[in-house]
Amino acid sequence: MKIRISTLNCENLFSRPKIFSANNAAELLGKVNELNEALRQPVFDHQKINQLLNQLKGYVEVVDVRSTLDSAQGPSDWLGWVDLKRARNSDAAIKNTARVLAAINADIQCLCEVENRPLLNAFHDQLLWPYYLKPDGKQPFTYNLVIDGNDERGIDVAVMSRYPIVSMRTHMFETTIYQGKEVKLFSRDCLEIGVEVQAGVRIDLLLNHLKSMGYNPPGDPNSNQRRLQQALRVVEIADAYSLDQAYVVVAGDLNSPPTSPSLAPLVSHPKLYNVNLELPEAERGTFHTGKQQLDYLFISPALRQKLTGMHIERRGAYAKTKWQPFDTVTKPSEAASDHSAVVAEFQI
Predict the structure, then answer these.
(1) Domain edges within the chain
(2) Largest CB tally within 10 Å, which of 4, 11, 237, 247?
(3) How would CATH label the architecture of 2-14+89-347?
């Protein structure tokens, strides 16, 4: 049987935090982190809090349940949190996301940056299936799964599958020590999914969206230390399988090129193969202009033996000259994503 597996960072289906579209997004995300840190201090520095709120005006809102933040001496005197304001994706971008997923036509589609499961189901049932899959005689995705991870911005990892999901394990609760503090190990999650493609035959996926290169804390200017901790744990989870016999895939947006030291545990692993190596080096990029590979399918030796082909689906991303996008992608705001999809085919 032929199986097609793909990964795509869809940059949210219907809406995404407005801050992501700002020219100085990395700087603003740093200030959001400062604001959250200020709201965790034993004694509030109201001058600093108000200054940060002014700098983040239009991008965040503070949910102040008891309306006591202005007078609160510290965390015990108020109840609330910081929310990022969201902006709706354009109709064209939403439709082009559906179009690119239909063009990929994967049997197992891994996704990064999905808001939640109800929205994924709505996207599938109301747009992807009736307008893009069914008219072309393609099958719907019967099994769709998202669980909320550690990122509060609604950018979770997800999977859409035509085959039954028979097991699921989250790693969102694992912790590590980073810059002297105990923090959640995974920025989102390493979502471990088992898919049964035939009786007694399964593919196990480790879905990831590693630490971004956006906001980089002092002392780790490229977030390499944080990402390295995550990559080491992903390898540890993968190594629990008998990779010579098991069909295992590490998929997702890993937020660094293969040359980054933070991805060395994965890139140099003798039993995890980056399928983009099937392409000439100049054609392996997946992000923006295609210069950098940030999106990956690493496969076990057992699955590599079944690999029959791969390609990068770029037509949902906007480009002036480097490739020909869909005719419905005429400007960046209409693009399905800044990321292109990695697609691999197997004969099992």
Answers:
(1) 2-14+89-347, 20-87
(2) 247
(3) 4-Layer Sandwich (3.60)
Six token digits for residue 285: 């990029």
Taking the C-alpha atoms of residue 209 and residue 37, their distance in angstroms, rounded to an integer, is 23
Q: Measured in whole angstroms, how far is the alpha carbon of residue 257 from the centre of its chain?
A: 15
**Region 161-176: what's the mean pLDDT?**
98
Mean pLDDT of 319-334: 94
Q: Which amino acid is at 331?
A: K
pLDDT per residue as tens digits for the range 94-143: 999 999 999 999 999 999 999 999 999 999 999 999 999 999 999 999 99
Residue 215 has pLDDT above 80, yes or no: no
What would the pLDDT profile of 289-305 be if each residue is shown by its tens digit?
A: 898 999 999 999 999 99
If you count them, how many residues does the chain have?
Answer: 348
Q: Which two tokens stand for residue 343?
A: 């697609």
* Long-range contacts (CB closer than 8 Å, 24 or more residues apart) made by 23-30: 25/214, 26/214, 26/215, 26/216, 28/55, 28/56, 28/59, 29/214, 29/215, 30/215, 30/217
Percent of the chain having pLDDT more than 90? 86
CA separation (Å) from 85 to 88, 126, 335? 10, 25, 21
pLDDT over 90 (residue 30): no
User: Residue 125's closest CA among 160, 155, 92, 158?
Assistant: 160
Return all residues near 60 (Cβ < 8 A) that are at least 6 apart: 19, 32, 35, 53, 82, 83, 84, 85
Between 320 and 249, where is the model more confident?
249
Given a cut of 80, whether residue 214 has pLDDT beyond it is: no
234 vs 237: CA distance, rounded Å: 5
Q: Strand, coil or helix: what is 252?
A: strand
**Mean pLDDT, to the nearest integer, of 242-264?**
97
Residue 213 phi, psi (nearest 5): -95, 15
Question: CA–CA distance from 246 to each of 139, 300, 306, 340 (Å)?
Answer: 26, 7, 12, 27
Across the strands, what pairs with 292?
287
With beta carbons less than 8 A apart as the criterion, state whether 243 and 199 touch.
no
Quick one: CA dihedral 313, 319, 320, 321, positive or negative? negative
